[in-house]
Write a structure and sequence with these properties.
Number of strands: 2
Structural class: mainly alpha
Order of helices and strands: HHHHHEHHHHEHHHHH
Number of helices: 14
Radius of gyration: 21 Å
Strand order of the largest sheet: 1-2
Distance between the termini: 28 Å
Length: about 325
């Protein structure tokens, strides 16, 4: 016991020394709304966190598994519609509706995406893109769910239970921050689990993974199910934030592309890729819209297009800048 005592005392010190930069970064995120106090700045920060969350969700199927899905806006919309309509029709609390939206997204994904797993590369991407557009057209012409007119959520007393806040945007910011912390913790566990190794093996070579006894179709379905569940959760957050949903604003092609570009810009298949890509992309888009106003329509498309062209010259994303020998040497010095 005398020999074990110093180790037990030293372990917390080692933890704080190795992770203090991440702890400081999280503390900064907690304080950020009080540094930038304008309502528009809070709106941009909420959008950044929401798309970082969506990017992490897409990263599971697109980054780790290597299946470039381009129809996630449909599952984003399914989550928003499920929680909203469950409250309007049955009075179900939005938090429970969020869970039901995730389950419904998994069910829809299993039905329509499982046949697509036989496709590879660009063919899989085109198939998921087409399915996403079909779902958007279905909701646009479905009168039971409001059709093209959409659904307006009723105003409720301001509270966490009702998931509505009218006087300030800060609760939405902190809820989005908790969501991001949750999905980052889950991705961290997946990276170091048997599931993570299986997904990376499928990404490298499906034939080699199958020869090792990995059920490729099963683990693709697992990765897609986890991905769409979290995507639907973000849809509920968005619906409660804007209190109005319609297929045109929820499920456009641009949303699917943004969900994909955020992790690719930061580094697809890496833990911190979406955290790096979301601020750069969303801040550029939101501020270009604000500065240019109505005369700047289409500038967000130009920004996304320019970033996609730039990715060609750095396909590994921004995280590749932090993986060189010079940065590693500097990082070791910082961490002691």
């Amino acid at each position: 016991m005398g020999r074990l005592k110093p180790l037990m005392v030293r372990q917390p010190r080692i933890f704080w020394r190795k992770n203090y930069i991440f702890i400081v970064a999280f503390a900064l995120l907690l304080a950020l709304p009080f540094i930038f106090t304008a309502h528009f700045q809070h709106h941009v920060m909420i959008k950044v966190l929401m798309f970082a969350f969506l990017g992490c969700a897409w990263n599971i199927i697109g980054g780790y598994t290597g299946q470039v899905a381009l129809g996630h806006a449909a599952f984003f919309g399914i989550g928003a519609y499920t929680s909203s309509l469950c409250y309007i029709w049955f009075g179900l609390n939005p938090w429970f509706g969020m869970f039901l939206g995730g389950i419904l997204a998994i069910a829809v994904s299993a039905v329509i995406n499982y046949p697509c797993f036989r496709l590879h590369g660009r063919y899989f991407a085109i198939a998921t893109l087409a399915l996403g557009m079909i779902i958007r057209l279905l909701f646009t012409n479905w009168r039971l769910v409001g059709g093209a007119l959409g659904v307006r959520l009723p105003l409720l007393p301001e509270s966490l239970w009702n998931f509505q806040f009218h006087t300030t945007k800060l609760p939405y910011y902190y809820i989005a921050l908790v969501f991001c912390a949750l999905i980052f913790a889950i991705l961290y566990k997946i990276e170091r689990s048997k599931l993570g190794f299986y997904l990376r093996a499928i990404k490298e070579s499906e034939e080699a993974a199958r020869s090792l006894g990995i059920d490729v179709a099963k683990y693709k379905l697992v990765a897609m199910s986890i991905s769409v569940f979290f995507t639907a959760m973000a849809g509920t957050l968005y619906a409660q934030y804007v209190l109005y949903i319609d297929p045109i604003s929820l499920m456009p092609l641009m949303t699917s592309i943004l969900i994909c570009v955020v992790p690719v810009l930061g580094g697809a298949g890496t833990l911190w890729g979406p955290a790096l890509g979301a601020p750069i992309l969303l801040i550029a888009i939101e501020y270009s819209r604000a500065w240019l106003g109505g005369g700047g329509r289409g500038v967000d498309y130009m920004i996304v297009g320019a970033i996609m062209v730039a990715i060609i010259f750095r396909p590994a994303g921004l995280t590749s800048f932090f993986q060189g020998p010079r940065f590693r040497q500097w990082w070791r010095r910082i961490r002691g």
